[in-house]
Amino acid sequence: MTEAPNKMGVKPMLPLLLSMSLPAMFSMMIQALYNVVDSIFVARFHPDALQAVSLAYPLQMILISFGVGTAVGVNSLIARRLGAKNYQEANNAATTGLVLAAFNWILFLIIGLVFSRPFISMFTKDPTVVSYGTQYLTIVLCASYGMTTSVMGEKTLQATGNMIFPMLTQLLGAVVNIILDPLMIFGIGFFPRMGVAGAAVATVIGQFCSMTFVLIILFKKKHDIKISFKGFSLKKETLKNIYAVGFPAIIMQSIGSVMVSGINAIISIADVTAETAAAYINAFGIYFKLQSFVFMPVFGLNQGVSPIIGYNYGARNKERLYSAFRLGLIIAAVIMAAGTLLFQLAPEWLLSLFESDAAADASANIMLTEVGAPVLRIISISFMFAACGIMFATLFQAVGKGLYSMIMSVGRQLVILLPVAYLLSKINLEAMWYSFPIAEIVCLGIAVVFFIKLRKNELSKLD
After folding, report:
1. How far apart are CA 270 and CA 423, in angstroms?
2. pLDDT digits over 389-402, tens only?
3. How far is Cα 139 from Cα 231, in angstroms, rounded to an integer?
4. Cα(45)–Cα(37) distance, rounded to whole angstroms?
5. What predicted TM-score, i.e. pTM, was given to this entire model?
């Protein structure tokens, strides 16, 4: 009986890319909606709550970095092994991924119990903000098993070319979260008024719903891979291959946490009033929520492009590899162009979504708009450059060159962005935000150099 060819090796590229990317892009948009709605409800509850969640976000980003980064490594290895028709190693990689998800949860259970309060206290002495931030971090970190496992399940399915079930997994978690947020924050119906803690509880409940769904799909549905713990043992070579891509991916995303913490620290030590500093921290936190509407579709596109590139790299099909990369680059640029226009033309309206309802907070709302509008306009200049950088990083990760992506991320967010931001902050805090487009432009130059090297040494030798 002739084996049916995998669609990633034979289907026309544009229909293939759209069929694999659109479900992920849709689910990522739902995730972006959840991120924004979550912060809107928190802001309506109390301005200090929004500041607390903004300060907690970097440590939450590290949790996501470990979960997603490890899953990216598993995804890349499975796709390459399937492309090379090595199904046994693909199965072992998928099973190993679920074990690693549990290890990540244990790590962040400890971090949540020990470091939540000290972390928030690094950036503010306001007891209300510290209390809110500690509540939120402790819950989302200690109950993170749902997140680490659901993300691993999604990436495992995506590596086989299945994009529908990962989309449904993310959609389920986001919808549950959005529904529970107002109920648990404000105490609607039979729910108690939990405030910031309610937002955290709603988040982890949504994650556990996603985890339950994706595990049912993994173990009950038929796929190109089979997960089994019977006779399973961790293999050194499998771990090495996973973290060759996964560790750089973890570093890349964790660096974003360091960058956010660094920006918050620069604002905290700036020669401005406490009210102005709080407004800038809130504006930057809001930016990170809003930019997800622009970046999340590109990351969804990334999820469709990556397994196609990885599969055809394993199959040594240079033409299809380049075709996937070119189409991904064009679509990413179009998405980012639309996002740039939105941030340039309507920043005041975007910021108004996060204003507090309390009359006593009217002055804080005005200040948020005054300092926030320039923040959104200036940072959005970097979006088009970021689109190209993201797609180059996707290519590097898909072919097993995660180190290139890591160097790009370190260069952009640590070596370039933070020092430039600090220097520009000495002029004023508004000038500081130009560090974002400067960093993206330099990063894109680094990516082009790496691509030329990769094409000369490896891609040119493919069939």
Report:
1. 11
2. 999 998 888 887 87
3. 35
4. 12
5. 0.75
